[in-house]
Specification:
binds nicotinamide-adenine-dinucleotide; alpha/beta; Aldehyde Dehydrogenase, Chain A, domain 1; six-stranded mixed β-sheet
């Protein structure tokens, strides 16, 4: 039996093939557990069970407040098990225990609580204004979509899972989740906790760990699936869209980014430097909306760059399980090699970085240096260079000078991505004018990374389609049905429109 099993049709189980895969603590290259390795057969079984649970089961027929009660119970279950979930999340992903305890686990519980509120508050029916056929009454019914699948990445495993499961269940759908292979533990642990607490009817929530090429493809393509929500790379996002197009399924895509954090010349440099460093190096830069391009006004450029280099040198790399560590290991060695490759490219494109640029020295004993990468800052980076255009997904910052607010906006928008961004300034009116011109899904003024379940999140351009969170993130999990009622139940004179066919009917 695997240490962590799949949840299919109400049962915790091994995969049909009996295969497992190992998962590791990246900091020490130590095996943590054996995970059941799902395949196409498991995905199909889950999809068929989900279809039945939606078409015949009780879940979609519950009222919004009944569903809200269950979602709040899941939030409570997460809070009751917060310490264990935070430890597992950090061990498996390399994210610091500080991040898991303060952001990931409570953030996921908050998402379930927010969508419980949505289930209670968002109306299931809305009257429609009638302008053209005045004898009729018209209304819209909001209905669940059906079987919703969620495919998630490794960088924020637990919070991403909550963004997929909570809105789907709140709106009356059933949900199947595939976690990323490197970070499957907490999704399977939550499945286990919910099953043991007997919180949901069978197949309302199912979790299948396994490869994207089998489980993921099936969850995106199977005709019995009604919607697929994907968070991950833009490259795989394109594939998901292709697979979903076979049966014209709606997709939500949350993809890559190369966001610009603009520092205007009137910014408080202590605050702005903190926003730039936090905006880039939080979680080792493995954040889709990281502000990995810092655009800095030439008037304050040299001074700010000096402060950035000084402060970046004080960021502590270490064991992710130590609460005092600022950045833990990257999720795996592949990610370290990617950062290394881009740094080599950066050296060719713009020269030596002002700090970092390789694996760190002097790590505490027992940690594997090959899992770590130093916070790295390249300066005077042309926006057209590859290091400024491509998503690195590691702790690498490009600093780019500009001469006017309009030029800053033009540089910020010169990207295939448009996920987020920042403006740092002491003049809020000026900052908001800049924010309004940025073609991106979120702008934080004098802040960064402030995502919360009650506000929409998503991308422009190749950063994605649709929005998660907020009221928007609830409504995308519902169909809209228009019902037209002619109150006259007899007498053809009330139906003059029939004469568009013939006056003889
Ligand atoms: P990835 O695209 O490699 O994988 C994401 C998920 O898709 C995984 O579960 C993977 O197993 C699955 N997958 C892979 N190939 C598949 C296929 N052919 N069909 C179906 N599923 C498949 O991404 P990653 O490396 O796990 O995560 C990093 C990426 O995620 C970065 O690009 C980052 O910007 C992005 N991201 C975006 C957001 C956002 O909200 N926009 C949030 C977090 C991460």
């Amino acid at each position: 039996m695997a240490d962590y099993q799949l949840l299919i049709d109400g049962e915790l189980c091994d995969s049909a093939s009996g295969q497992t895969f190992e998962t590791y603590n990246p900091a020490k290259n130590e095996k943590i557990a054996e995970i059941a390795k799902g395949g196409t057969e498991d995905a199909v079984r889950a999809i068929e069970a989900a279809r039945k649970a939606f078409d015949e089961g009780p879940w979609p027929k519950l009222s919004g407040s009944e569903r809200a009660e269950k979602l709040r119970a899941i939030a409570q279950l997460i809070n009751d098990n917060a310490n264990e979930l935070a430890e597992l999340e950090s061990l498996d992903s390399g994210g610091t225990i500080r991040k898991s305890q303060l952001a990931d686990i409570p953030g996921a519980a908050q998402a379930f609580t927010w969508f419980a509120q949505m289930a209670e508050e968002r109306p299931d029916k809305a009257d429609l204004p009638v302008a053209v056929f005045p004898q009729s009454t018209n209304y819209a019914l909001y209905e669940p979509l059906g079987v919703c699948t969620g495919i998630i990445p490794w960088n924020f495993p637990f919070i991403m899972l909550s963004w997929k499961i909570a809105p789907a269940l709140a709106a009356g759908n059933v949900s199947i989740i595939k976690p990323a292979t490197y970070t499957s533990i907490t999704a399977l642990k939550l499945a286990q906790l919910i099953t043991e607490a007997d919180l949901l009817p069978p197949a309302v929530l199912q979790v299948i760990a396994g490869p994207g090429s089998t489980v993921g493809e099936e969850l995106a393509a199977n005709p019995l699936v009604d919607k697929v929500a994907f968070t991950g790379s833009t490259e795989v996002g394109r594939r998901i869209m292709q697979l979903a197009s076979g049966t014209v399924k709606p997709v939500t895509l949350e993809l890559g980014g190369k966001s610009a954090n603009i520092v205007l010349d009137d910014a408080d440099l202590d605050q702005a430097s903190a926003a730039v460093l936090w905006g880039t190096f939080f979680h080792g830069g493995q954040v889709c909306e990281s502000g990995t391009r810092a655009l800095v006004d030439k008037k304050i450029y040299d001074e700010l760059v000096g402060i950035l280099a000084d402060k970046a040198g004080k960021i502590q790399l270490g064991d992710q399980m130590d609460f005092m560590t600022d950045i833990g290991p990257l999720v795996n060695r592949i990610q370290v090699e990617t950062a290394e490759r881009y740094c080599a490219l950066g050296r060719e494109e713009v020269g030596e970085p002002i700090c970092g640029g390789g694996r760190p020295e002097g790590l505490p004993e027992g940690l594997d240096v090959n899992a770590y990468f130093q916070p790295t800052i390249f300066t005077d980076v042309p926006n057209s260079s590859k290091i400024a255009q491509e998503e690195i997904f590691g702790p690498v910052l490009c600093v780019i000078p500009f001469s006017s607010d309009d030029e800053a906006v033009a540089i910020a928008n010169d990207s295939i991505y448009g996920l987020a961004g920042g403006v740092q300034s002491s003049n809020l009116e000026r900052a908001e004018a800049v924010a309004a011109k940025m073609r991106t899904g979120t702008v934080w003024i004098n802040d960064y990374h402030m995502i919360s379940p009650d506000r929409p999140f998503g991308g422009y351009k190749q950063s994605g389609i649709g929005r998660e969170l907020g009221t928007f993130g609830y409504d995308v999990y519902r169909q809209v049905k228009h019902v037209h009622v002619n109150p006259e139940t007899s007498g053809r004179d009330n139906h003059i429109q029939y004469s568009a066919l013939s006056s003889n009917i």
